[in-house]
Structure formats: C-alpha cells, structure tokens
Design goal:
By secondary structure, this protein is an alpha/beta fold. The chain folds into two domains: 225 residues, NAD(P)-binding Rossmann-like Domain (Rossmann fold); 68 residues, no CATH class. 35% of the residues lie in helices and 17% in strands. It contains eleven helices and 13 strands. The strands form four sheets. The protein has a seven-stranded parallel beta sheet, sandwiched between helices. Strands 7-10 form a two-stranded parallel sheet. α1 crosses α7. The radius of gyration is 20 Å and the shape is globular.
C-alpha cells in the first residue's frame, strides 16, 4: 500500500493511469497536475513518452502493456488509485481487442487490488446498456447492462462491467468506480482514443475545414436523439472519482443537451434535410443483423434504438456537471 494517506492526508494520493496519452488521459492529466490532493502520478503506456515535455511534472513514466499482468503489478506498486483508460475502439482484429480491452482490464483490476489500491476507476460506455426497444428515455444507473446483438464493442463493455463487479466483490478493499459516457468529442478525440491510421489522420482532422468551405451543403440526417460529451467533462468526472468524491458504483455522464442528426449537421455548417427516425431505426436493425459485418459497420446498431441516459446521479453524488454542450463539443472536435 502507498505511504500516502489519501485525499485528506498530508502527502496526497499516488495515482496510476493506464493509457495517459489517449483522449481521456490527455484531458485528465492537467487536472491531476493541478489537484493538490494528488501528489504523484504513474503513467503506464506501451510507447515511450516524456511527461516533462507536456508539463506533467507529477508523472513518472512506466512502459507496460495491459496484457502483461507482471508489468502492471510492478507499475502499480504504491498506488492509492488506479485509473484504467487503455482501450481500443477501432483498430486491431477481434483477438487483439479482446486481449487488450477485456483481459487487459481484468489484469489491471487484479493488479490494482494486489497493490492495495483504494479505488479503481474505469471508463465504460453508454454502449454497455445495449440498444434495445425496452430501454427507457432517461436510462438510470440501475438499468440492466445488456450486450448488444451485433456490436462487438458494446458486448465487450457490458461483459467487462459484469466481470469487474465480480472482481470487486472478491476484492472489497478496492472500490470500483464506473463512468458511462456517450460519444466523446473534443480536440484530442481523433487519433487518440480512436485508433485512426496515420495516413488517414490528416483527412479526418481536416473535415471541419472542408465543411467551412462548403457552407450550406445539403445532407440527409436521421431525426434521432443523440447524446455527446466533451473530453474535458469526462476528465473532470474521472478526477472526482480519483479523489473519492462520490460513493463507488456506476455514473452516467453526458452533456445536458440531447441533440439530433439535424443539430449535428447545423453545427458543422451543413443544411440538414431531416429523415424520419422510425424508418432509419428499422433499416439500422435490418443492417445490424447482416452476418460478418466489419467492426466499423457494426456501429449501425446504435441507430436502431438510440440510448439516452439520465445524469442526475453524477450531479448529486459526485458533484459533477458538464461545462460544455453537445454542440460545443462538436465544434471543439472539428474546428481545428
């Protein structure tokens, strides 16, 4: 166990972070850097980086892969809190993503528990709820997390939540915190959390500039509800979990405004031509049932029964509130 005495102690927390250079990590680290309750940060990543170059003076770099349980145990020595952010969304085959996302996450929790960490903080997803006809509008945290029929990413998230809860029951000394954000946007959303091939990164990051040169371009958009969140708002929720601001458990987080495809199009400078949501959802359900869809195409299932969460618990128990609207998050992603 670390020598630090926790959030209220004189020496402050030691926090280990896997995946510190992804979308979430890049937003979280400045908050940990500025938080007086955090004394030391251990950053674990597969590729070398220099924390000092980013101004992260509290961080010590450790090279490690979440598939290597021994490396995690060594890296987590002395940690009061472990924040697990290493996760693949796109990129790599199914075996690779299974090994990193599922087995790597379980490795991380077990290593954290073995190190005596007080808290384990994990970024799950709205996708853990699945996209089902009986999902209510305003899903609360006590609603069942159920695998999607076809979307492998959602299946992983639901499976992981169940497995982590089982692990936490076996290791009650390590409190489990789960955050469930929707689509995460912001200046680091492309090329960090999303594993975009280097050759395509300039194309993706230039979308906003191209759209500005084509104002009013008409585009068909489904009239379906959608939640978004800015990476900085995810980071603040993570920070609150790190310092133990709320009780352990799951928390939904999202921007306060629920948008539609038309709102997204307008935010990008396009002229939205609305398509009724019902036939789009029906078509998405049909496409999602096609066997052997590529991993990227599987995301069509998210249109079949859009999931909308209630974020009251995060606001009342964590003391969290979003600073960015969904529309602002869109602009922060593409206006670069």
């Amino acid at each position: 166990m670390a020598e630090s005495t926790g959030a209220t102690g004189a020496t402050g927390l030691t926090v280990a972070v896997t995946g510190p250079t992804g979308t979430f990590g890049l937003a979280l680290m400045p908050l940990l850097q500025d938080d007086d309750q955090v004394a030391r940060v251990i950053g674990i990543a597969r590729r070398p980086f220099d924390p000092q170059e980013r101004g992260w003076t509290k961080m010590e770099y450790r090279r490690g892969d979440v598939r290597d349980a021994d490396a995690l145990r060594t890296a987590f020595e002395g940690a009061d809190v472990v924040v697990h952010l290493a996760f693949l969304i796109l990129g790599g085959g199914r075996k690779t993503t299974q090994a990193i996302n599922v087995e790597g996450t379980i490795n991380a929790f077990r290593a954290a528990a073995e190190a005596g960490a007080e808290r384990f903080v994990y970024a799950s997803s709205i996708a853990a709820y699945g996209f089902h006809e009986d999902n209510p509008i305003g899903i609360t945290e006590d609603w069942a997390t159920r695998p999607a029929e076809r979307l492998f990413y959602a299946q992983e998230k639901a499976e992981l939540e169940h497995r982590l809860q089982d692990e936490a029951a076996e290791h009650p000394q390590t409190a489990l915190y789960l955050l469930r954000p929707p689509i995460v946007l912001g200046p680091d959303a492309v090329g960090a959390k999303l594993d975009v091939p280097a050759a395509l990164a300039p194309v993706v990051s230039g979308v906003g500039a191209a759209l500005r040169r084509l104002p009013g371009l008409p585009v068909l958009v489904p009239d379906l509800p959608l939640q978004l969140i800015h990476q900085d708002d995810v980071a603040e929720a993570l920070r609150l979990c790190v310092v133990g601001a709320g009780t352990p458990g799951a928390y939904n987080i999202a921007a306060d405004d629920v948008v539609t495809g038309a709102d997204v199009a307008r935010a990008l400078g396009l002229r939205a031509i609305r398509v009724p949501g019902a036939p789009v959802a029906a078509a998405a359900r049909a496409v999602a049932k096609i066997p052997f869809l590529p991993s990227a195409a599987q995301w069509v299932e998210a249109l079949s029964h859009p999931a909308i969460m209630d974020t009251t618990k995060a606001k009342t128990e964590l003391g969290w509130s979003p600073r960015h609207t969904a529309v602002e998050s869109l602009r922060a992603t593409f206006d670069k």
